[in-house]
Design a protein that fits this description.
With 289 residues, the chain is mainly β. Strands 1, 3, 4, 5, 6, 8, 13, 14, 15 and 17 form a ten-stranded mixed beta sheet that branches. It is globular and about 55 Å long. It starts with 11 loop residues before the first helix and ends with a strand.
């Protein structure tokens, strides 16, 4: 959309009056003395915009340890409903404690298939509660597996209401195709200079199924750079991938979910066991001092 030009254009009379006023102020008989001009101060950098080593991010500035009796509504809200979510997914997301609950200091996000074949799961997000910019985000989690099971730890641009996807940007910290539980995927989605959907990322083969144990999935965000880690070991660096405009310096919110079926890993088959769950020990944001 092209916006009209509202820049002020003075009429000739207004310009003449301004010139006469300036002449009067500079007349030899005037007592007007110009005051000192204060130079602009230094630009204050955004907190943590510089890239530092993983271990330098030691100041815990936000977290959820999931130690309570119920999900903290001051930190999280639920996405609800079905309809495929743009990927032909099969699940319907609910806010039922059957699909998302706390137990023993962990968050459980559980995909359930009913006797009638309906599939429910949960998707929680910090949108409207907490936005994140620069720093390190750690999520310690154990993921599920099975054909058609799709666990994800990811982020969306907080301005998605004004700049619809993919312009707002998407950061997939961790995705796993349930049929390939040794493959860790990290992908960025964005708008290209041509206004189309672009993406760039990596697939990292792990020595064992990611479903076998808890792992810490991390992204370190600094100005014009994202770095990705598993258990403190870096495996990928991303600049902007040709995004135009670049959304990855903006505020983002966190999303945790378990999807079922759809374009990513196909639909469950006879080998897929239900229920399947992602167990999350904590979500933490660290910054350097």
């Amino acid at each position: 959309m092209r916006f009209p030009d509202f820049r002020f254009k003075p009429r000739h009379g207004a310009g003449l009056l301004l010139a006469l006023n300036l002449l009067a102020c500079t007349d030899k008989g005037s007592s007007f003395t110009p005051g000192p001009v204060t130079p602009p101060g230094p630009v204050t950098p955004v907190t943590n915009e510089d890239a530092r080593a993983y271990a330098d991010y030691t100041e815990l500035v936000w977290s959820d340890e999931f130690d309570g009796a119920a999900l903290d509504q001051a930190k999280w809200k639920y996405d609800l409903g079905g309809g495929g979510w743009g990927n032909n997914e099969l699940e319907t997301y609910t806010n039922s404690t059957d699909n998302a609950y706390l137990n023993g200091g962990n968050l459980y996000i559980k995909a359930i298939k009913s006797s009638s074949g309906n599939i429910t799961s949960a998707r929680i997000l910090t949108s409207g509660k907490k936005d994140f910019q620069y720093g390190r985000i750690d999520v310690r989690a154990q993921v599920p597996k099975g054909k058609g099971i799709w666990p994800a730890i990811w982020m969306l641009g907080s301005d998605i209401g004004q700049n619809p996807w993919p312009k707002c940007g998407e950061i997939d910290i961790m995705e796993v195709r349930g049929s390939k539980p040794r493959e860790l995927l990290s992908t960025m989605h964005f708008q290209t200079a041509q206004g189309t959907h672009g993406q760039q990322g990596t697939t990292q083969l792990q020595p064992a199924d990611l479903s076998d144990a808890f792992h810490i999935y991390s992204v370190v965000r600094s100005k014009d750079q994202l770095r990705f880690y598993i258990d403190g070991q870096q495996y990928y660096t991303f600049g902007n991938g040709g995004a135009s405009p670049n959304p990855f310096n903006n505020l983002f919110f966190v999303i945790l979910n378990v999807a079922v079926g759809g374009d990513f890993d196909g639909n469950p088959d006879a080998s897929t066991v239900f229920p399947q769950q992602m167990v999350v020990d904590y979500v933490r944001q660290y910054q350097y001092k």
